[in-house]
Structures are given as C-alpha cells and as structure tokens.
C-alpha cells in the first residue's frame, strides 16, 4: 500500500511541476490511463494464468 501512495504522491508532484513550468503532458490523460490500465492488466494476467495452470495440472 505504501508503494501505491508514494506513486500517487509523486504523480501529483510531477503534474504540479508540469503545470507550473507550462509543459504539456507527453500523452493525453485518457491515453496515459489506458496505457497504465493495460500494464496492470498484463501484470495480473500472468499471475492469473499461472494460477489456472496450477489448478488444471494438479
């Protein structure tokens, strides 16, 4: 849980810095969130498939 809070805090800090400096985000927010969702889905998919394989082979 600590890693999630730290990640969120750093994201907010970087967003504030981008706003103050006047730099646009490298990706539109929707695209960035879709990419993060894909990364999370891929990470959890591997664990899910491993769990299924353990149940199927045993």
From TrEMBL:
TM spans (from-to): 32-53
InterPro entries membership: DUF1427 (IPR009872), XapX_domain (IPR020017)
Pfam family, one: DUF1427
This protein's UniProt keywords: Membrane, Transmembrane, Transmembrane helix
Domain of life of the source: Bacteria
Record-given protein name: XapX domain-containing protein
């Amino acid at each position: 849980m600590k890693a999630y809070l730290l990640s969120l805090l750093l994201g907010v800090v970087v967003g504030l810095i981008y706003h103050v400096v006047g730099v646009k985000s490298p990706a539109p927010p929707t695209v960035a969130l879709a990419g993060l969702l894909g990364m999370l889905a891929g990470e959890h998919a591997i664990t899910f498939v491993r769990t299924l394989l353990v149940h199927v082979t045993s």
